Amino acid sequence: MIGEFAKRQGVKKVYGIVSDYQVGRDMWASLKADMESKGIAIAGIDFTPIGTKDYAILLDKAMKSGADGLALIVVGGDTVTSLKQGGDVGLASKMKVMGTMLMDETQGQSVGAGGALGVHSTLRYHFTQDTPRNKRFVAAYRAKYGELPSQYAGEAYDGMSWWLDVVESTGVWDKEKWVDAFRNSVRNDSVEGAKRMRACDNQAEQVGLFGTAVAGGAGQPPVTMKVTETFTAQDLFKPCQ
Question: What architecture is the 132-205 domain classified under in CATH?
């Protein structure tokens, strides 16, 4: 989704700051190839150890690189550290800062508005999704917990409710039959709309969401994600072979 988002936003050149572990390196390799295939140039890359306390030099390199986009692919506390330090230098006003699970309402509370506003991120789920099941879920969640569901709450509910409904539909107590049924199942009333499990790779074809952190309105968290791009499954998934 990052490559597709950058393309839609007209980003011409991207700098990468990526956590230095195998998943981070694999993600960057895939993203780099995807962006280059879309005509987006790579200005540079820094792999940074998990637990880095000072991102100032790396962010300064990125801003001076001539890139108009920053792929910030970091994990855990590094997300908070890098974005807080980015806020000190107005990073999001100088480059399109984007990443995978980089920002949401929960993360916004930790980072604060100064570092969060204007950051772009993939979202697994968002409470504003306009489906009948999601409206029921949000209403029930607010009634029980007194707050809006996070992306993790929505994703967990959607996955577990899908799985349990499939298990019950088999009418048997046999885990192999459950797995086979789930592998070939379709969820037409997901909180995110229709989903289809791909038997070839056990991934759920579904819409993809990209959001931008904005100041929340009445009844919303101070930092709220505004869904700015919705990608169809066809945009994101290569056909099964």
Answer: 3-Layer(aba) Sandwich (3.40)
